[in-house]
Automatic annotation (TrEMBL):
Protein name: Putative membrane protein YphA (DoxX/SURF4 family)
Membrane topology: Multi-pass membrane protein
Family: Belongs to the DoxX family.
Main location per the UniProt record: membrane
Any one cellular-component term (Gene Ontology): plasma membrane
Keywords: Cell membrane, Membrane, Transmembrane, Transmembrane helix
Localization of this protein: Cell membrane
InterPro entries: DoxX (IPR032808), DoxX-like_oxidoreductase (IPR051907)
PANTHER family named in the record: INNER MEMBRANE PROTEIN YPHA-RELATED, OXIDOREDUCTASE CATD-RELATED
């Protein structure tokens, strides 16, 4: 792992670990802000208990942050963090609903901060740490298999031609031996 990754991953994860712990310890204040998002989520079958969902989001943030920060399954941890960040941002920083200009500006700043964090965890989710991704490996294996098939076909054609030449040579030798 590069030095930059070793330093940057825990730095990026710190906000999520701290936020996740806070959501687990004090879900009440966040549950009020999450109520409109929870009401929408209830329509698709999720529980309609805001405190439960805030705590679940806290667990996701804490777990994803720990995975990313320790470098253990950092891509999975980053994907979990990205998934938890979207509802958090929509619930807590809906600046478009604010009427007070100062509160609106503050919420917009927090919204953009979370948007930047989302960009960071998305980059971390696709970071392969210098190793080829699974998609690249699959394409490479397919390419290698196609090349192997082409090589095998070419070798088979060459062997058939050689066998044909050999058969003609043997036939000519046999004909010469009879005469």
């Amino acid at each position: 792992m590069s030095l930059v990754r070793r330093i940057a991953r825990p730095m990026l994860a710190a906000m999520f670990v701290a936020g996740g712990l806070d959501q687990l310890k004090h879900p009440g204040a966040k549950a009020k802000a999450a109520k409109p998002v929870v009401d929408q989520a209830a329509k698709v079958g999720l529980p309609d208990d805001p405190e439960l969902l805030v705590r679940a989001n806290g667990v996701a943030m804490l777990g994803g942050g720990a995975l990313l920060g320790t470098g253990t399954l950092p891509r999975l941890g980053s994907a979990v963090l990205a998934g938890s960040l979207v509802p958090t941002t929509l619930a807590a920083h809906a600046f478009w609903n604010e009427t007070d200009p100062q509160a609106r500006a503050q919420q917009k700043i927090q919204f953009l901060k979370n948007l930047g964090l989302l960009g960071g965890v998305l980059l971390a989710a696709v970071d392969t740490d210098g190793k080829p991704s699974l998609a690249w490996r699959a394409r490479r294996a397919s390419h290698d298999a196609q090349r192997s098939v082409s090589t095998t076909k070419r070798e088979a054609r060459m062997a058939a031609r050689a066998a044909k030449r050999e058969a003609k040579l043997k036939a000519a030798q046999a004909k010469n031996a009879l005469t």
